[in-house]
Amino acid sequence: MFRFLLVAMTASVAFAATEADLRTALLPKTGKVSLPAGTIEISREITLAPDAHDLDISGKTTVIKASAMFRGRALIVIPGGKNIKVHDLSLDGNRDAITKPHGMPPSSAMFSRFVANNGIVAEGVTNLEITAVKATAIDGYAILVNSGHTVKIQGIQISGSGGLNAKKRNNTTGGILLEEGTTDFEVLDCRIADVRGNGIWTHSLYTSPRNARGRIAGNEFAMIARDAIQVGHATEVRVENNRGRMIGYPTEDVDQNGQPVAVDTAGNVDKSVYRNNQFEEIDGKCFDLDGFHDGEVSGNTCTNGDVVKEYPYGNFGIIMNNSNPDMQSRNNRIVNNTMDGELFGGIFIIGEGHTVTGNHLKRLNLAHCNEPGPINCAAIAGQPDILRTGIYLGAGAERPDVAKGNTITNNEISGYGMSLHCVGAAPGVKLTDNTIAKNECSDDAAIALARFGTLR
Questions:
Q1: Nearest to 289, CA basis, from 312, 257, 258, 267
Q2: Residue 197 half-sphere exposure, CB side, CA atoms within 13 Å?
Q3: Nearest residue to 269 (alpha-carbon basis) of 229, 242, 308
Q4: What does the radius of gyration of the chain's CA atoms come to, in whole angstroms?
Q5: pLDDT means per 10 residues in the chain (456 residues)?
Q6: CA distance 289 to 267
Q7: Using a CB cutoff of 8 Å and minimum separation of 24, what contacts does 102-109 make?
Q8: Phi (first) and psi of residue 374, to 5 degrees
Q9: Which residues are 264's β-sheet partners?
Q10: What pairing do the DSSP bridges indicate for beta strands 62-78 and 82-92?
Q11: 0.70 cut: is pTM over it?
Q12: C-alpha to C-alpha distance for 282 and 227, rounded to whole angstroms
């Protein structure tokens, strides 16, 4: 019996996998690779062959962990290839042991070449599939795809990830990033919680091709300190049936230069649809349509149920902007959305050709602008109504773009002072240059009820 136990113990020790074993296992360029079992600490990134193809990597009982001495771009780097699958694997970034403060890259730098300590980095891969991966304590991005084509990311679990900048605020990291013209991609059914930066994000440099033909659907978010989802510099992206709670939390991780948003937009984004998403407790904006044009925002719900002081970064429900010089805010359909409990107004509109109808904007102006109260409503100079109006037609945002030729009909607008400040306009903007009809406006206390007919 004693001899049997000794042999068993010796065998157990002999089969404890090392970093060298893991590197050896990942040498093949093609075929199926089953990774060694157990937790394997590595000190440097593991890079696959740049011409890998038809490669299937799995490790159901494998945890790849960064050692306290780890240095590298990612635990696994995929520098090229085609038909590559990575699945059923756990990654531990050992964030607290290796993290160092850093900010965002300069505007001319790709994230994949700037941010270290990621989980998986894949560059220029065609037919990439990453599924059923569990990532914890990643200092950079859990998954970062640069210039990929036909990419499927599904069933990823991310927790406790993302780094901080020198001011101890989030630096956008922690979640899933697709950048530099990634096309034909899907990010589906992921669970992302306790992430300091963005949950799911597309991004490209201004000089790079836009990300294209993507679907972000069925994902769940909780405790995200920046954006749950951001669509940046993209075309033909569908964001649908996602759910989230506690966006913009914890407050101490929020970067004041990157106000949290449930679904954000940046760059030039067109032919895209944000549909049937549900979010609760957003300390920021629900939808930011900066650069969004010729698209649709429909059937979404954002609900805040707490007291005013719990939303220091609170804002509008839906807001348009035009920071990117290559776009104009045109032809958006904003229909059948519910915004319940906004610090300021419901919808901010610039530009032309928008249809805003069937929306339920409830419990607006929680801050009671422009009256003394717990929130300082510092309105834009010369526009005293901008923060206290249900639907506000602006003269522009980052650039001038007067709201005109828009259709605003059949919206329910209620909240503090909404009987007086239901649909309003900035100086120089004429309500009569838009079609505004059959909007139901009321104060929370039902002091007044006004029905807006077509304004002449």
A1: 267
A2: 25
A3: 229
A4: 25
A5: 40 71 97 98 98 98 98 98 98 97 94 97 98 98 98 98 97 98 98 98 96 98 98 98 98 93 98 98 97 98 90 94 98 98 96 98 93 71 91 97 98 96 97 98 60 37
A6: 10
A7: 102/163, 102/165, 102/166, 102/171, 103/165, 103/166, 103/171, 104/165, 104/171, 104/172, 107/205, 107/206, 108/205
A8: -70, -15
A9: 230
A10: parallel
A11: yes
A12: 10
Closest CA to 429 of 396, 452, 390, 384: 396
Residue type for 281, please?
E
Type of residue found at 30: T
pLDDT value of position 256: 86
Q: Which of 155, 171, 181 is nearest to 268 (CA)?
A: 181
Cα dist. 272→149, 269, 282, 326 in Å? 19, 7, 23, 16
Residue with the two structure tokens 């607290």:
96
User: Are the CB atoms for 133 and 89 separated by under 8 Å?
Assistant: yes
**pLDDT at 376 (0 to 100):** 65
Distance (Å, whole) CA 308 – CA 454: 34
What residues form DSSP beta bridges with 144? 121, 177
Residue reference for tokens 């019996």: 1
**Distance from the Cα of residue 71 to its chain's centroid:** 27
Could you give the CA distance from residue 138 to residue 175 in angstroms, rounded to a whole number? 9
Instruction: Say if residue 257 is exposed, middle or buried (CB neighbours under 10 Å; 0-12, 13-18, 19+).
Output: exposed
Amino acid found at 348: F
